Amino acid sequence: MTDTTAVPAEANIDSASLERLRATVRGPVLTPDDPELAVEAACFNIAVTHRPAVVVGATDESDVVEAVRFAVAERLNVRVQSTGHAAIVPITDGLLITTSRMNTVTLDPESRLATIGAGARWGAVIAAGAEYGLAPIVGSSPGVGAIGLTLGGGIGPLARSHGITSDWARSFRVVTASGDAVTASASENLELFWALRGGKGGLGIVTEMTLELAPLRTLYAGGLFFDGADDIEKALRAWGEWVQQAPDNVTTSVAIMQMPDFEMVPPPLRGHTVLHLRFAYPGDAAEGERLIAPLREAASVYIDAVAEIPYTAVGTIHNDPEQGMPTWIYGTMLTGLDHDAISAFLEHVGPSSGSPFMIAELRHLGGAMNRADADGTAVSGRDAAYLVNLITANPQTFAEAAPAAAAALVEAFGPLLAPVTNINFSGDPADPLTFARSWNEPTHERLRLARSTYDPNGVFAFGPALQG
Ligand SMILES: Cc1cc2nc3c(=O)[nH]c(=O)nc-3n(C[C@H](O)[C@H](O)[C@H](O)COP(=O)(O)OP(=O)(O)OC[C@H]3O[C@@H](n4cnc5c(N)ncnc54)[C@H](O)[C@@H]3O)c2cc1C
């Protein structure tokens, strides 16, 4: 756990202003001496404890407007949190707006448009769409916040067949640094709309998003598990060959998973190191079975959990943890994958590598991700071929073992390393190196201009330049 005892309290905040804020907003206004602050600011990543000067639990757009205006008047920087899935570094200053109360999801089945509150998680959007056979194009975990993921792009289990989540965004309501609420869409505030789809932060607080849903009721999807070093290598190499010819409408990924010997892990996996091969085909089961056949035959399948599933079970493809846990994540992207890259992956994160990672995954990208107009949004990493994502839950590895192991793997990928990594996977945006590799230079420059238009004084803390 992070020690937050030395964090300065709200000493410089005008107490009359704070009382006025409390009287104006409907949600709670908390300072470090309020015991509720810890719960209000709690994160999915339980290794991080936030203790900002003020937390405003916003209930609607007007609460967000008041909170931003208060912060500007008090010279506090502003951050926003929905679920804390992206929490990496404790927040120790400024004002934090929490959005978990703004979690309504409404749907117009005719236009296929869902209106999603700032604090809604994907699970609620999936449930709202299911009644009408409509599906949001989500990330791997239904527990992740819809807005946070979309602002970074959103690369999920249907990335190759349906593209990036933000390609389905149709409009945003945003409170900018002036304290005004504006709409950003293809017809209003075009540059802000461009920036919000992939630019992630430093632009404003999104209070609501309109997202088009895809007509999709079922998937032929799930995971194949391979156990033991031989089968893991055989299956991984077969997948590495298979993806070279994979059709665009199938999205797959593989993860070497070191399952802990904990009771919460189901017995067949508990204490095992397995290869989890994820498969998602948004079509009928017969064709799905034909497509997956070479992967099923690649090695001896330990657990076969691929079948026709309702879209409501999309989260079972990756089976990400739902409960918060200590998390250290590192992502990078590759331009290709060959025999040597797979050897490097096995050597550095394979069953006998001694790797610190609970999950080391390779996601196959491309397909519909590439077909979208690259200049139409600020999403980075769109043209990469693979995503590498490394996760450890053991805090003892966070400071040294995990970063060193990630750096060694990155070096081993050599020329296949892509120059940028999508911001949802790249790490702490406040770190200058992470920030630099999250977009290419033209996109960085265009984002700089958008941020300076909508937040000229850097009220919204995001990226190294804006850290106070
Ligand atoms: C288990 C797990 C699985 C994941 N799977 C995927 C995946 O498949 N694909 C993918 O692309 N990413 C994935 N991610 C990364 C995820 O998309 C990012 O961590 C995302 O930022 C989480 O959003 P959140 O709202 O849940 O988190 P939070 O930590 O609450 O928010 C993260 C950031 O999003 C921004 N943000 C959130 N709400 C608002 C708002 N209302 N207005 C303005 N900015 C806002 C802020 O910059 C905030 O710091 C995963 C992460 C985890 C931990």
Can you describe what's shown?
The chain is an alpha+beta fold. The chain has three domains: 15-98, Uridine Diphospho-n-acetylenolpyruvylglucosamine Reductase, domain 2 (2-Layer Sandwich), CATH 3.30.43.10; 105-215 and 437-459, 2-Layer Sandwich (Uridine Diphospho-n-acetylenolpyruvylglucosamine Reductase, domain 3), CATH 3.30.465; 219-426, Vanillyl-alcohol Oxidase, Chain A, domain 3, CATH 3.40.462.20. It is 28% helix and 22% strand. The protein has helices at residues 15-24, 37-40, 61-73, 122-130, 146-152, 159-162, 190-196, 229-242, 285-296, 339-349, 368-371, 401-413, 423-426, 432-436, 441-454, and strands spanning 29-30, 54-57, 78-81, 95-98, 105-108, 113-117, 134-135, 169-175, 181-185, 205-212, 214-215, 218-227, 251-258, 273-281, 303-310, 328-334, 359-364, 386-392. It has a seven-stranded antiparallel β-sheet. Strand 5 and strand 6 (113-117) form a beta hairpin. Helix 1 runs antiparallel to helix 3 (61-73) and helix 10 (339-349) runs antiparallel to helix 12 (401-413). The longest helix is centred in the middle third of the chain and has 14 residues, at 229-242. Mean pLDDT is 94; it is low at 1-10. Bound molecules: flavin-adenine dinucleotide. Flavin-adenine dinucleotide is lined by residues 44, 80-87, 99, 118, 139-141, 144-145, 147-149, 151-156, 200-201, 205-206, 320, 327, 424.
